[in-house]
Amino acid sequence: MMNPELEPQPSRKPARVRAETCRMFESDWLERFSRIHPATPFVIWVPVAMLFFVRSALRHDLSLPAVGGVFLCGMFAWTCAEYVLHRYVFHWTNDSPFGKRIHFLLHGVHHDFPNDKDRLVMPLPMSIPLAFIFYPLFTLTMSRTLGEPFFAGFVVGYLFYDGTHYYVHHFVPATRWGKFLRRHHMTHHHADHDGGFGVSSPLWDLVFRTMPVKRGR
After folding, report:
1. How much is the pLDDT for 18?
2. How far apart are CA 3 and CA 56, in angstroms?
3. Total-model pTM
């Protein structure tokens, strides 16, 4: 009888480990700015939101409850902007080499490497230009009296988005709402790229009928 220790054993191939990150730029300087610590948006943008909210309150053009109401309207407006940006900008595609490169830089890299902890919140080279677009848009269309508290709420809504995005990728929520948001976003990533564009809220997916669905293989 053959010694069991001498019997041929089935070969065991090591499990393939998917890389969690990639290099986006040849330039070390550009590569550094493509990454961001998840706390950075809060360090930068919380003071900005506080500045405009407090300045609006101290100006006394509106009562404090009115400033708070406009602030909340700004937060609500962000949920729509989040949906539009995610659906029509981040998921814009084009078959040309240039179009593919732009899509990869804007959002494709996140779908290819969804657990890259350095690329789960919006980098400053993207959030700062957006702020310089939205602030004058709000103040020119609504006046500074309404535009500044609206912008402050818009910024806080954005922070909820970034915080939620990082949370659902790196933590397992304990609450029913947290579990729903994680399932909503993971379905977008792994089953239905054409649905589930809201991250902090599914509201606009419900409105525009783009709730993600688990499709059969």
Report:
1. 54
2. 84
3. 0.86
Identify the domain containing residue 159 by its residue range: 37-171
- The whole-angstrom separation of Cα 45 and Cα 113 is 26
Structure tokens at 159: 């922070």
Contact 150, 138 (CB under 8 A): yes
Rounded to 10 deg, the angle between the 124-170 and 176-190 helix axes is: 110
Which amino acid is residue 21, in one-letter code?
Answer: T
Q: Is residue 108 part of a domain?
A: yes
Number of domains in the chain: 1
Query: DSSP characters for 72-86?
Result: HHHHHHHHHHHHHII
pLDDT band at 13 (very low <50, low <70, confident <90, very high): very low
Q: Report yes or no on 1 lying in a domain.
A: no
Contact present, 139 and 147 (Cβ < 8 Å): yes
Q: What are phi and psi of 127, to 5 degrees?
A: -70, -35
Q: Do the beta carbons of residue 166 and residue 120 sit within 8 Å?
A: yes
b/e sequence 123-133, b meaning 16+ C-beta within 10 Å: eeeebeeebee
Q: What is the DSSP letter of 108?
A: I
* 25-54 per-position pLDDT tens digit: 888 888 888 888 999 999 999 999 999 999
